[in-house]
Write a structure and sequence with these properties.
With 295 residues, this protein is mainly β. Helix content is 3%, strand content 44%. The chain has 1 helix and 22 strands.
Length: 295
C-alpha cells in the first residue's frame, strides 16, 4: 500500500466524510486506519491469482505545503507478478519484499533487467511487508503476523525473528534507528539490535494526522512515505513529524499499463548517486525519477 484535482481547504471535512466509506482519506485528513487490503483478497488468494484494487483520485494537499511532481529519468522492467511491499537499493541491486499469502518473498533483483537474482519465499501463512537493509542484515516485516524476520544479506539465511504489537507496513532506517510504519499516522523509531521502540512521532500536515503511512525510505534527512491507495508520497521531518511537502506520482503508468495492476508502493534511494526509484504492486515497470517543484 493519481493526484489530479485541487480541493479547496474548505472542502476537507466534506471530503473526509465522503471518502470514509471508500477507506481512502486525503493527505492530512483524520480517519481511522482500516484493514489494509480492503480491496485485496488475502487468505483466500491462490498463489496464481492477481488481486486488484481500484485506485481513487487523490486530492491535492493544502496549498501552503510545497508540492512536487517528477521527471522520469529511466524506466526499467519489473516483475508484474511481484506484489511490491518494500524496496531497497544497495550495491548496484534492488532488494524487494513482496506480499500476499502464499506469494510473499524476499528478493535480490537486477535493476536494469528486472531479473530476480535470488529469492527466499516466506511460509504461506505470512504476508510480507516493509524491508530495510541495516549493517549487513535484511529486516523484513509481515502484515498481521506481528513478526519480523532478520536475514544475512548475502545468503538470505534467516538469523532470527522478532515480535512487535502492531501491524507491519513500511520500514527504513536513518543510520541509527529503524523507522517503522503500521498504517496509522505514527512512525516508530526502533533500536536496530533489540528492536525496542526508542521514540514515536505523529505525522501531521497542517496539524492534521496523516494516516495510512505505508512504504518508507530515508532520503537526505527526510522520511519519504507513500500514503497507501494513493499516488502521493509525503516528505516528513523525522524529528517533528511535520509534512514538509507532497510528491505527486500520478501518471507514471499509461491507462493501458494500469489495467490489471495495483497501487503505487515501493520507494528506494541510491544515496551514492542520488537516484530515486519508485514502483507499485504488480507493476510492469520500475522508474528512476527526479523531483520537480510544482509551480
Amino acid at each position: 500500500m493519481g493526484g489530479r484535482k485541487c480541493i479547496r481547504a474548505g472542502m476537507w471535512l466534506a471530503l473526509v466524510v465522503a471518502l470514509a466509506a471508500c477507506a481512502t482519506p486525503p493527505p492530512g485528513a483524520q480517519a481511522p486506519a482500516s484493514p489494509k487490503p480492503a480491496a485485496i483478497p488475502t487468505a483466500a488468494v491462490a498463489p496464481t491469482e492477481r488481486p486488484l484494487a481500484s485506485p481513487l483520485p487523490t486530492p491535492e494537499p493544502p496549498p501552503a505545503v510545497i508540492t512536487y511532481t517528477y521527471t522520469v529519468v529511466n524506466a526499467y522492467p519489473h516483475d508484474p507478478g511481484a506484489f511490491t511491499q518494500g524496496l531497497v537499493y544497495a550495491d548496484g541491486v534492488l532488494y524487494e519484499s513482496t506480499g500476499l499469502y502464499g506469494r510473499s518473498s524476499l528478493r535480490r533483483v537486477a535493476l536494469e533487467t528486472g531479473e530476480v537474482l535470488q529469492q527466499r519465499d516466506l511460509p504461506a501463512e505470512y504476508f510480507g511487508e516493509g524491508l530495510a537493509l541495516f549493517d549487513g542484515r535484511l529486516i523484513q516485516l509481515t502484515w498481521q503476523n506481528n513478526t519480523g524476520f532478520v536475514y544475512e544479506a548475502a545468503s538470505f539465511e534467516l538469523q532470527r525473528t522478532w515480535a512487535y504489537p502492531t501491524e507491519g507496513w513500511g520500514l527504513t532506517h536513518d543510520g541509527t534507528h529503524l523507522i517503522m510504519s503500521d498504517g496509522s499516522a505514527t512512525l516508530r523509531f526502533l533500536d536496530p539490535v533489540t528492536f525496542q521502540v526508542q521514540r514515536e512521532v505523529l505525522v501531521t500536515d497542517g496539524g492534521r494526522p496523516v494516516v495510512r503511512l505505508n512504504e518508507l525510505e530515508y532520503v537526505n534527512g527526510e522520511v519519504f512515505a507513500n500514503v497507501w491507495q494513493t499516488d502521493w508520497v509525503a516528505r516528513i521531518d523525522p524529528q517533528s513529524g511535520r509534512v514538509l511537502g507532497w510528491i505527486d506520482l500520478g501518471g507514471l503508468l499509461t491507462p493501458e499499463e494500469r489495467q490489471g495492476i495495483d497501487v503505487l508502493n515501493g520507494i528506494a534511494y541510491d544515496a551514492q548517486n542520488d537516484r530515486l526509484f519508485v514502483t507499485g504492486k504488480l507493476w510492469p515497470k520500475l522508474f528512476e525519477i527526479t523531483l520537480v517543484p510544482k509551480p
